[in-house]
């Protein structure tokens, strides 16, 4: 999978399958925007993975 220099939006990316997707995509070289309501967990993932490759935006994807 060639994902270098791509940006991916992952809704509900701060937990469960969304978080697993974030981790998989980062491993393949893409940059990530996590959209989720869980601000604490989202910021924790950003700090853990890379502030250059992942950003978090508190977002309610249901509205």
Could you please describe the fold and organization of this structure?
This protein is an alpha/beta fold and 63 residues long. It has one domain. The chain has helices at residues 16-27, 39-49; strands at 7-11, 31-36, 54-58. α2 links the parallel β2 (31-36) and β3. The longest helix is centred in the middle third of the chain and has 12 residues, at 16-27. The chain is globular.
Question: How many independent structural domains?
Answer: 1
Q: In this structure, how is the largest beta sheet organized?
A: 3 strands, parallel
Low-pLDDT regions: none
C-alpha Rg (nearest Å): 11 Å
Q: Between the first and last Cα atoms, what is the distance in angstroms?
A: 32 Å
Overall shape: it is globular
DSSP strand count: 3
**Widest sheet: strand order?**
1-2-3
- Secondary-structure element sequence? EHEHE
Structural class: alpha/beta
Mean pLDDT level: 92
**Number of continuous helical runs:** 2
Residue fraction in strands: 25-35%
Helical fraction: 25-40%
Question: How does the SSE layout of this entry go?
Answer:
Layout: E1 7-11, H1 16-27, E2 31-36, H2 39-49, E3 54-58
Parallel strand pairs: 1-2, 2-3
Short description:
This protein is α/β, with parallel strands linked by helices and 63 residues long. The chain has one domain. The chain is built from two helices and three strands, in the order βαβαβ.
List key phrases describing it.
63 residues; alpha/beta; 3-stranded parallel β-sheet; 3 strands
């Amino acid at each position: 999978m060639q994902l270098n220099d791509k940006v991916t939006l992952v809704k509900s990316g701060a937990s469960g399958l969304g978080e697993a997707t974030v981790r998989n995509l980062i491993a393949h070289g893409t940059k990530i925007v996590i959209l989720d309501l869980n601000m604490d967990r989202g910021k924790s993932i950003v700090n853990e993975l890379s502030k250059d490759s992942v950003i978090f935006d508190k977002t309610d994807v249901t509205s």
